[in-house]
Amino acid sequence: xxxxxxxxxxxxxxxxxxxxxxxxxxxxxxxxxxxxxxxxxxxxxxxxxxxxxxxxxxxxxxxxxxxxxxxxxxxxxxxxxxxxxxxxxxxxxxxxxxxxxxxxxxxxxxxxxxxxxxxxxxxxxxxxx
Length: 129
Known about the structure:
By secondary structure, the protein is mainly α. It has six helices and no strands. The radius of gyration is 16 Å and the shape is flat. The protein starts with 13 loop residues before the first helix and ends in a 6-residue tail after the last helix. The mean pLDDT is 85.
């Protein structure tokens, strides 16, 4: 076992971690599926916000997001992406620029429902992140 291996993770190329993640995704009826879905959505959002922030807000912040995206995916298995994305402050800057009340209410509702759902999973003793 290599010295840099923890939780069955090793350093690897970014696409290897993403491929391993998607190939091990559970079936829809498995409660763990929703945790995997949250991971996948977080990966897609970080990738989206990397480009959005780079072109619309500030290039250095976009580069910061992109390099963190590479760091998060440069393991043999992508794990805990929503938790790690909490330190990516340019995402919050981009979300703070939402002008549409409908879109703001939609994003806030999705975040609130996700919080409730994963809190329930956690209190039931399930893996949430």
